[in-house]
Amino acid sequence: MELNSNTIFFKLKKHVATVDWKLLAFLILFLNVKIGVKIFAIVLIYLLEFDFKFGFKFKKSTLPLFYPIIIGIAVINRVISINNNQLNYNLVFFTGVIFWLLCILALHQIKLAVNRNEPGVIHRTVLVFFALNAAVSIFNLLSIIMEIHTVNPYLYQGQYQKYFIGTGDYIRGLTFDISTTNAVINAFGVIYFLVKKHAPMALLCMAVLLLTGSNAVDLMLMAILLLLFIFKTSKDQKSLIVVCILFWVVFILKVSPQNNEYVLKLYAKAFHHELPAKPVVSIPARPVTGSLDNSQDPEAQKRKIAQLYLDSLYRLTIKNKTSTITTTAAPVEDKHFIPGPDIDSKPFQHVDTSTSESLTLLNFISAHKANLPFSKNKDQQETLPGKLIAIAQTEHFLKTHPQKLLTGDGVGNFSSKTAFRATGLGFAGKYPPRFAYISGDFLTGHLDIYLNFFSRADGLHSLVNSPNSVYDQLLGEYGLIGLGAFLIYYLGYFLRDYKKLTYGIPLLMMMAGAFLLEYWFEQLSVVVLFELLLLVNMKEASSLKTEDNGNQ
Length: 552
Known about the structure:
The chain crosses the membrane at residues 23-50, 62-80, 92-114, 126-150, 170-195, 202-231, 237-255, 475-494. The protein is mainly α. The protein contains 22 helices and no strands.
């Protein structure tokens, strides 16, 4: 017995020793939604691993040159710009630059962790991170189930549809950030563990991804999985891909069919395609006059039971008359019919409530109508999703402002989380109101788009209607030079040994797609995880290259 205990302890100690707990703690803290926690993570990791040798070089740079180039463009724009609101804009400028510096500081520590560990240690650390994230996500789901006493909250329409199609918004995982963050993290996990041939973790990440209800991320991942299925997977991996796709199909057909309808509506809106109308069957309503009441006398209860029974027969008769399928009537059981909840009643219908955020947006629109061509027209129905309108706006801006084509409009002046934060409206993070700053280009552009959709009904509060996008940010605020730096010195940095990369290529494709959805660099979340996984794959590729040279 003592021998067995010692053996278990030895194995446990061995497993604990093969995880980089410092890296794991940094990931958990830095990916947390709170900016204060992120800064604490940076301070803590640099106290534990004091190293500021970033190694930026034009040839074989240790870290991507993209980051210092972007900061350089920001400084140039600040020097050449003429801004009347100097104090307020200076704060915006420094806020934007600080976000880029935090990206560098985080990436440097990730690089140090990869350098000091074997790939196997990083793999086990990453596995623990994804397992913890899945555990918290499942806890999020179980909390909802315990609250509503229903196994499938994605079909639950009670509480004014508090959950229902929006259930995924509450599956936030370990970061406590928006569900899109959790979705992208798990999409990374599916790809990583699929290529690593770790089926249980790949399926677990796939399940959590589906729980977040992020249609955009789901579709991106499905496209990547299909490419992997066709071009670069073994027989076992192909089987795993098929299972993942089946998970997705079952989810959209059985677990959350309304998400499927939502995607079809967005497709129809984006491509001006009319969906076939659903046939409507009108059933005459006959009110149920009440339910059983224990306070009634026995005779009154008998009369009520008889009345409810007749009402149930009436509804059954009407339903059979409207049905086009002839069925054999089942014998009526000799028991009383107690009607269930009426899903057409008010508690089961969605109600657009005026939250403090929406009221703030509406008040802002009212005060700035002259400069808001989209959002000032409340009754106007947009024919395109906000994301596409934002792309068109960026293109139009650069065409009409050729002097800003190369270096952009400057930090916080066109499209970024910093620009949204600096409005002082509170929906992109806290910012001192007395230092609020809103550029005219941002006000009449991407902010107007956001106000137009997110001040309206809840159904319009979607990723596809958000102007947030890294590509818009780079083009609008850093110009063609900024976008070029991203392509050459960021993506190019990770593609240096692209022929040797395994999961790195599909991960890069996933990240490139995700950059359409948010200002991920300023979010200080999924980009760090992406960079960690790519750096590990690059180290594995480098090891293979060294082995090949040695064999020669």
